[in-house]
Protein backbone atom coordinates (compact mmCIF):
# COMPACT_ATOMS: atom_id res chain seq x y z
CA UNK A 1 0.00 0.00 0.00
CA UNK A 2 1.16 3.52 -0.89
CA UNK A 3 -0.81 6.13 1.02
CA UNK A 4 -0.54 9.08 3.37
CA UNK A 5 -3.72 11.11 3.84
CA UNK A 6 -7.19 10.27 5.17
CA UNK A 7 -8.57 9.56 1.69
CA UNK A 8 -6.51 6.33 1.67
CA UNK A 9 -7.64 5.04 5.07
CA UNK A 10 -10.91 3.20 4.18
CA UNK A 11 -9.21 1.36 1.31
CA UNK A 12 -6.15 0.52 3.43
CA UNK A 13 -8.31 -0.85 6.25
CA UNK A 14 -10.35 -2.92 3.78
CA UNK A 15 -7.21 -4.40 2.24
CA UNK A 16 -5.89 -5.40 5.65
CA UNK A 17 -9.20 -7.13 6.41
CA UNK A 18 -9.41 -8.78 2.98
CA UNK A 19 -7.97 -12.21 2.01
CA UNK A 20 -5.07 -10.39 0.34
CA UNK A 21 -1.75 -10.10 2.14
CA UNK A 22 -0.59 -6.53 2.68
CA UNK A 23 3.17 -6.71 3.12
CA UNK A 24 3.99 -3.08 3.97
CA UNK A 25 3.00 0.58 3.81
CA UNK A 26 4.98 3.18 1.92
CA UNK A 27 4.05 6.67 3.07
CA UNK A 28 5.31 10.23 3.03
CA UNK A 29 7.80 11.15 5.77
CA UNK A 30 6.48 13.31 8.59
CA UNK A 31 7.93 16.81 8.60
CA UNK A 32 10.38 17.31 11.45
CA UNK A 33 8.82 20.26 13.26
CA UNK A 34 10.43 19.51 16.61
CA UNK A 35 7.01 18.78 18.04
CA UNK A 36 5.31 15.54 18.90
CA UNK A 37 3.58 13.94 15.93
CA UNK A 38 -0.19 14.26 15.70
CA UNK A 39 -2.23 11.32 14.41
CA UNK A 40 -3.97 13.53 11.84
CA UNK A 41 -0.64 14.19 10.10
CA UNK A 42 -0.43 10.64 8.76
CA UNK A 43 -3.46 8.45 9.48
CA UNK A 44 -2.27 5.63 7.22
CA UNK A 45 0.85 5.23 9.33
CA UNK A 46 -1.32 4.78 12.40
CA UNK A 47 -3.41 2.12 10.65
CA UNK A 48 -0.25 0.25 9.60
CA UNK A 49 1.28 0.38 13.06
CA UNK A 50 -1.96 -0.87 14.63
CA UNK A 51 -1.94 -3.80 12.20
CA UNK A 52 1.73 -4.58 12.86
CA UNK A 53 2.81 -3.78 9.32
CA UNK A 54 6.22 -2.49 8.30
CA UNK A 55 6.25 1.22 7.42
CA UNK A 56 8.66 2.86 4.98
CA UNK A 57 8.77 6.62 4.42
CA UNK A 58 11.46 7.49 1.86
CA UNK A 59 11.96 11.08 0.83
CA UNK A 60 12.01 9.84 -2.78
CA UNK A 61 10.24 6.56 -3.47
CA UNK A 62 11.87 6.41 -6.91
CA UNK A 63 15.50 6.40 -5.78
CA UNK A 64 17.50 3.21 -6.23
CA UNK A 65 17.42 2.28 -2.54
CA UNK A 66 13.60 2.45 -2.41
CA UNK A 67 13.20 0.47 -5.62
CA UNK A 68 15.56 -2.21 -4.29
CA UNK A 69 13.49 -2.44 -1.12
CA UNK A 70 10.29 -2.82 -3.16
CA UNK A 71 11.84 -5.56 -5.27
CA UNK A 72 12.60 -7.57 -2.11
CA UNK A 73 8.88 -7.82 -1.32
CA UNK A 74 8.18 -9.61 -4.64
CA UNK A 75 4.74 -8.00 -4.50
CA UNK A 76 2.05 -8.88 -7.00
CA UNK A 77 0.54 -5.38 -6.98
CA UNK A 78 0.94 -1.87 -5.62
CA UNK A 79 -2.21 -0.09 -4.41
CA UNK A 80 -1.79 3.70 -4.42
CA UNK A 81 -4.11 6.30 -2.92
CA UNK A 82 -3.48 9.81 -1.57
CA UNK A 83 0.24 9.08 -1.41
CA UNK A 84 1.85 12.37 -2.47
CA UNK A 85 4.59 11.11 -4.78
CA UNK A 86 4.45 10.00 -8.41
CA UNK A 87 5.77 6.48 -8.97
CA UNK A 88 8.26 6.19 -11.83
CA UNK A 89 8.22 3.49 -14.48
CA UNK A 90 11.09 1.67 -12.71
CA UNK A 91 9.26 1.86 -9.41
CA UNK A 92 6.03 0.43 -10.88
CA UNK A 93 8.04 -2.34 -12.51
CA UNK A 94 9.07 -3.57 -9.04
CA UNK A 95 5.77 -5.45 -8.73
CA UNK A 96 4.43 -8.21 -10.95
CA UNK A 97 1.27 -6.37 -12.05
CA UNK A 98 2.38 -2.76 -11.59
CA UNK A 99 0.04 -0.56 -9.60
CA UNK A 100 -3.53 0.62 -9.34
CA UNK A 101 -4.53 4.06 -8.12
CA UNK A 102 -7.76 5.18 -6.46
CA UNK A 103 -8.36 8.69 -7.81
CA UNK A 104 -11.04 11.10 -6.59
CA UNK A 105 -12.59 12.08 -9.91
CA UNK A 106 -14.17 10.64 -13.03
CA UNK A 107 -11.06 10.51 -15.19
CA UNK A 108 -9.90 11.91 -17.52
CA UNK A 109 -11.45 14.97 -15.83
CA UNK A 110 -9.41 16.49 -13.02
CA UNK A 111 -6.04 14.85 -13.25
CA UNK A 112 -3.80 16.03 -10.44
CA UNK A 113 -3.55 16.56 -6.70
CA UNK A 114 -6.87 18.29 -5.93
CA UNK A 115 -9.63 16.69 -8.06
CA UNK A 116 -12.41 17.02 -5.47
CA UNK A 117 -11.80 20.72 -4.94
CA UNK A 118 -11.69 21.61 -8.62
CA UNK A 119 -14.83 19.60 -9.45
CA UNK A 120 -16.79 21.70 -6.92
CA UNK A 121 -15.08 24.91 -8.05
CA UNK A 122 -16.25 24.25 -11.61
CA UNK A 123 -19.83 23.62 -10.44
CA UNK A 124 -19.99 19.97 -11.49
CA UNK A 125 -23.23 18.27 -10.34
CA UNK A 126 -21.62 14.81 -10.32
CA UNK A 127 -18.25 13.47 -9.26
CA UNK A 128 -16.89 10.05 -8.40
CA UNK A 129 -13.84 7.83 -8.25
CA UNK A 130 -11.77 6.01 -10.83
CA UNK A 131 -9.48 3.03 -10.41
CA UNK A 132 -6.70 3.17 -12.98
CA UNK A 133 -3.97 0.75 -13.92
CA UNK A 134 -1.01 3.02 -13.40
CA UNK A 135 1.48 4.29 -15.94
CA UNK A 136 4.31 6.75 -15.52
CA UNK A 137 2.00 9.52 -16.79
CA UNK A 138 0.16 11.31 -13.98
CA UNK A 139 -3.37 9.86 -13.67
CA UNK A 140 -3.14 8.80 -17.31
CA UNK A 141 -3.46 5.00 -17.14
CA UNK A 142 -6.39 2.95 -18.44
CA UNK A 143 -9.56 3.11 -16.31
CA UNK A 144 -10.55 -0.22 -14.74
CA UNK A 145 -13.64 0.85 -12.75
CA UNK A 146 -15.58 4.07 -12.13
CA UNK A 147 -18.27 4.92 -9.58
CA UNK A 148 -20.36 8.10 -9.57
CA UNK A 149 -22.08 10.16 -6.90
CA UNK A 150 -23.99 13.44 -6.97
CA UNK A 151 -22.52 16.57 -5.42
CA UNK A 152 -25.01 18.15 -3.03
CA UNK A 153 -25.82 21.79 -3.77
CA UNK A 154 -24.38 22.85 -0.39
CA UNK A 155 -21.67 20.19 0.01
CA UNK A 156 -18.11 21.29 0.62
CA UNK A 157 -14.91 19.52 -0.38
CA UNK A 158 -14.41 18.60 3.26
CA UNK A 159 -17.79 16.83 3.30
CA UNK A 160 -17.46 15.04 -0.04
CA UNK A 161 -13.94 13.66 0.47
CA UNK A 162 -14.87 11.02 3.10
CA UNK A 163 -17.85 9.95 0.98
CA UNK A 164 -15.62 9.37 -2.03
CA UNK A 165 -13.03 7.57 0.11
CA UNK A 166 -15.67 5.04 1.17
CA UNK A 167 -17.11 4.84 -2.34
CA UNK A 168 -13.73 3.69 -3.62
CA UNK A 169 -13.30 0.68 -1.34
CA UNK A 170 -15.33 -1.91 -3.26
CA UNK A 171 -14.03 -0.80 -6.69
CA UNK A 172 -10.44 -1.22 -5.46
CA UNK A 173 -11.16 -4.80 -4.41
CA UNK A 174 -12.94 -5.45 -7.71
CA UNK A 175 -9.98 -4.04 -9.65
CA UNK A 176 -7.64 -6.40 -7.80
CA UNK A 177 -9.87 -9.30 -8.87
CA UNK A 178 -9.63 -8.11 -12.49
CA UNK A 179 -5.84 -8.05 -12.34
CA UNK A 180 -5.66 -11.46 -10.66
CA UNK A 181 -7.23 -12.92 -13.79
CA UNK A 182 -5.23 -10.82 -16.27
CA UNK A 183 -2.66 -12.46 -18.50
CA UNK A 184 -0.35 -9.45 -18.19
CA UNK A 185 -0.26 -8.73 -21.92
CA UNK A 186 -3.72 -8.21 -23.37
CA UNK A 187 -5.31 -4.73 -23.31
CA UNK A 188 -7.04 -3.97 -20.02
CA UNK A 189 -9.40 -1.19 -18.98
CA UNK A 190 -10.65 1.81 -20.94
CA UNK A 191 -8.00 4.04 -22.48
CA UNK A 192 -8.47 7.68 -21.47
CA UNK A 193 -9.23 10.24 -24.16
CA UNK A 194 -6.54 12.93 -23.75
CA UNK A 195 -8.81 15.45 -25.46
CA UNK A 196 -11.19 15.18 -22.48
CA UNK A 197 -8.47 15.60 -19.85
CA UNK A 198 -8.60 18.55 -17.44
CA UNK A 199 -6.12 19.53 -14.74
CA UNK A 200 -6.60 19.64 -10.98
CA UNK A 201 -3.34 21.16 -9.71
CA UNK A 202 -2.30 21.29 -6.08
CA UNK A 203 -4.05 24.14 -4.27
CA UNK A 204 -2.24 27.38 -3.50
CA UNK A 205 -3.14 29.96 -0.87
CA UNK A 206 -3.80 32.50 -3.62
CA UNK A 207 -6.54 30.27 -5.09
CA UNK A 208 -8.78 31.33 -2.22
CA UNK A 209 -8.88 35.03 -3.07
CA UNK A 210 -12.32 36.11 -4.34
CA UNK A 211 -12.57 37.77 -7.73
CA UNK A 212 -15.85 39.66 -7.31
CA UNK A 213 -16.26 40.04 -11.06
CA UNK A 214 -17.16 36.34 -11.21
CA UNK A 215 -20.81 35.35 -10.80
CA UNK A 216 -22.50 34.80 -7.44
CA UNK A 217 -22.87 31.08 -8.18
CA UNK A 218 -19.20 30.75 -9.10
CA UNK A 219 -18.11 32.47 -5.90
CA UNK A 220 -20.35 30.21 -3.79
CA UNK A 221 -18.80 27.20 -5.53
CA UNK A 222 -15.34 28.57 -4.71
CA UNK A 223 -16.26 28.89 -1.03
CA UNK A 224 -17.48 25.26 -0.99
CA UNK A 225 -14.48 24.01 -2.94
CA UNK A 226 -11.71 25.47 -0.82
CA UNK A 227 -12.76 24.28 2.63
CA UNK A 228 -10.91 23.74 4.87
CA UNK A 229 -7.85 25.04 2.96
CA UNK A 230 -6.93 27.52 1.57
CA UNK A 231 -10.29 29.01 2.52
CA UNK A 232 -12.00 31.72 0.48
CA UNK A 233 -11.12 35.26 1.47
CA UNK A 234 -11.51 38.92 0.62
CA UNK A 235 -10.53 42.31 2.03
CA UNK A 236 -13.03 44.87 3.31
CA UNK A 237 -12.11 48.44 2.44
CA UNK A 238 -13.56 51.30 4.51
CA UNK A 239 -12.17 54.80 5.08
CA UNK A 240 -12.58 54.38 8.86
CA UNK A 241 -10.34 51.30 8.90
CA UNK A 242 -6.62 51.88 9.31
CA UNK A 243 -6.06 49.08 6.83
CA UNK A 244 -8.32 46.67 4.90
CA UNK A 245 -9.77 43.88 7.07
CA UNK A 246 -9.23 40.37 5.80
CA UNK A 247 -12.33 38.16 5.97
CA UNK A 248 -12.61 34.42 5.35
CA UNK A 249 -16.04 33.53 3.95
CA UNK A 250 -17.22 30.17 5.26
CA UNK A 251 -20.74 30.14 3.86
CA UNK A 252 -22.66 32.25 1.35
CA UNK A 253 -25.78 32.10 -0.82
CA UNK A 254 -26.21 33.24 -4.41
CA UNK A 255 -29.28 35.47 -4.78
CA UNK A 256 -31.44 36.40 -7.76
CA UNK A 257 -30.47 39.74 -9.21
CA UNK A 258 -33.08 42.41 -8.33
CA UNK A 259 -33.44 45.44 -10.58
CA UNK A 260 -32.61 47.98 -7.86
CA UNK A 261 -29.01 46.76 -7.51
CA UNK A 262 -28.08 47.44 -11.11
CA UNK A 263 -24.97 49.43 -11.93
CA UNK A 264 -23.05 48.71 -8.73
CA UNK A 265 -19.42 47.67 -9.12
CA UNK A 266 -18.53 44.05 -8.27
CA UNK A 267 -17.51 43.85 -4.60
CA UNK A 268 -19.77 46.73 -3.54
CA UNK A 269 -21.86 46.40 -0.38
CA UNK A 270 -25.54 46.42 -1.37
CA UNK A 271 -27.23 45.62 1.95
CA UNK A 272 -25.84 45.89 5.50
CA UNK A 273 -28.76 46.12 7.90
CA UNK A 274 -27.61 44.32 11.04
CA UNK A 275 -28.93 40.94 9.94
CA UNK A 276 -27.79 40.59 6.34
CA UNK A 277 -24.78 41.49 4.22
CA UNK A 278 -25.24 41.42 0.42
CA UNK A 279 -22.30 41.99 -1.92
CA UNK A 280 -22.52 42.65 -5.64
CA UNK A 281 -20.77 40.21 -7.95
CA UNK A 282 -20.28 40.14 -11.68
CA UNK A 283 -23.71 38.54 -12.02
CA UNK A 284 -26.17 38.98 -9.16
CA UNK A 285 -25.70 39.63 -5.45
CA UNK A 286 -24.39 37.21 -2.87
CA UNK A 287 -25.47 36.89 0.77
CA UNK A 288 -22.59 36.40 3.20
CA UNK A 289 -23.88 33.96 5.84
CA UNK A 290 -20.84 32.95 7.93
CA UNK A 291 -17.63 34.95 8.15
CA UNK A 292 -14.33 34.88 10.00
CA UNK A 293 -12.50 38.19 10.52
CA UNK A 294 -8.72 38.00 10.71
CA UNK A 295 -7.66 36.69 14.12
CA UNK A 296 -11.22 35.79 15.15
CA UNK A 297 -13.43 32.71 15.14
CA UNK A 298 -16.04 32.00 12.44
CA UNK A 299 -19.36 33.66 13.26
CA UNK A 300 -22.86 34.12 11.82
CA UNK A 301 -23.09 37.28 9.81
CA UNK A 302 -25.47 38.86 12.35
CA UNK A 303 -22.82 38.59 15.07
CA UNK A 304 -20.21 40.16 12.80
CA UNK A 305 -22.49 43.04 11.80
CA UNK A 306 -23.29 43.87 15.42
CA UNK A 307 -19.59 44.43 16.01
CA UNK A 308 -18.56 46.37 12.92
CA UNK A 309 -20.97 46.78 10.04
CA UNK A 310 -19.78 47.69 6.55
CA UNK A 311 -21.47 50.72 5.03
CA UNK A 312 -23.42 50.72 1.78
CA UNK A 313 -20.98 51.04 -1.15
CA UNK A 314 -17.98 49.91 0.92
CA UNK A 315 -15.80 47.74 -1.28
CA UNK A 316 -14.69 44.15 -0.90
CA UNK A 317 -11.76 43.12 -3.11
List keywords for this structure.
317 residues; alpha+beta; Rossmann fold; Methionyl-tRNA Fmet Formyltransferase, Chain A, domain 2; seven-stranded antiparallel sheet; five-stranded mixed sheet; 25% helix
General description of the model:
Helix 1 (9-17) crosses helix 7 and helix 5 (115-121) runs antiparallel to helix 8. The protein has nine helices and 14 strands. The chain has helices at residues 9-17, 43-50, 64-73, 89-92, 115-121, 157-167, 169-180, 216-225, 301-307, and strands at 2-3, 24-26, 54-56, 78-81, 99-103, 126-133, 143-150, 233-237, 245-254, 269-272, 277-280, 285-293, 299-300, 315-316. 35% of the residues are buried. The strands form three sheets. Strands 8, 9, 10, 11, 12, 13 and 14 form a seven-stranded antiparallel β-sheet that branches. A five-stranded mixed β-sheet has the order 1-4-5-6-7. A two-stranded parallel sheet has the order 2-3. The protein is elongated. With 317 residues, it is an alpha+beta fold. Residues 34-39 have low confidence and may be disordered. 25% of the residues lie in helices and 22% in strands. The chain folds into two domains: 2-196, Rossmann fold; 205-316, Formyl transferase, C-terminal domain (Methionyl-tRNA Fmet Formyltransferase, Chain A, domain 2), CATH 3.10.25.10.
